[in-house]
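Postdoc handover notes: sequence design on the structure in folder B. Input tokens:
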């Protein structure tokens, strides 16, 4: 990968969680604590913010702020990951095959690739196709392995061939933005 000169904006996000004394004093059917409510609110907030991480369009907008007597304040929005993907691989049909995985691996790990490791984030439908492919495989080629491991409660499918290692995980945010049939492969080490 060769670096390109580019202007990047970072987006600041704030989450307000208000828990009143009245709520704490309420009798609850399920005994949960304030920390559970905060964790759930932060999880939902981060999941909504992940939409802009995938699909955001870079922009700078001046907004007049009432607290600053109408003075403008710059609001920055970041460019999403999907807007930065340089290569696209598409396949025909409903099922993905081992040859498709080899082609994705070849596309990702050749032509000036800095590493031979990447992570593929999949939507629900793509994950179903991968599961179906794994279950239908009878024998693999000599230099190809496809394993499923459970790392910290997350199911990871590891595909390894002569080009490199591709780990595939499920990302529910892709379903939220309408990309359930897609997989986004990212080189995390050199992102």
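Designed sequence:
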């Amino acid at each position: 990968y060769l670096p390109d000169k580019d202007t990047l904006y970072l987006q600041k996000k704030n989450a307000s969680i208000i828990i009143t004394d009245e709520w704490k004093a309420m009798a609850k059917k399920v005994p949960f604590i304030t920390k559970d409510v905060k964790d759930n609110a932060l999880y939902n907030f981060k999941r909504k913010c992940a939409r802009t991480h995938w699909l955001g369009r870079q922009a700078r907008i001046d907004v007049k702020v009432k607290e600053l007597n109408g003075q403008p304040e710059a609001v920055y929005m970041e460019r999403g990951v999907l807007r930065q993907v340089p290569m696209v691989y598409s396949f025909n049909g409903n099922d993905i095959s081992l040859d498709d995985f080899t082609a994705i691996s070849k596309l990702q790990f050749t032509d000036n690739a800095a590493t031979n490791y990447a992570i593929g984030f999949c939507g629900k439908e793509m994950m179903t196709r991968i599961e179906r492919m794994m279950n239908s495989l009878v024998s693999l080629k000599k230099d190809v392995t496809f394993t499923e491991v459970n790392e910290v409660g997350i199911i990871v499918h590891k595909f390894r061939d002569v080009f490199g290692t591709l780990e595939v995980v499920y990302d529910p945010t892709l379903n939220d933005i309408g990309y359930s049939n897609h997989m986004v492969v990212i080189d995390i080490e050199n992102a």
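Context for whoever picks this up: The chain is about 30% helix and 25% strand. Don't rerun without checking with the PI first.
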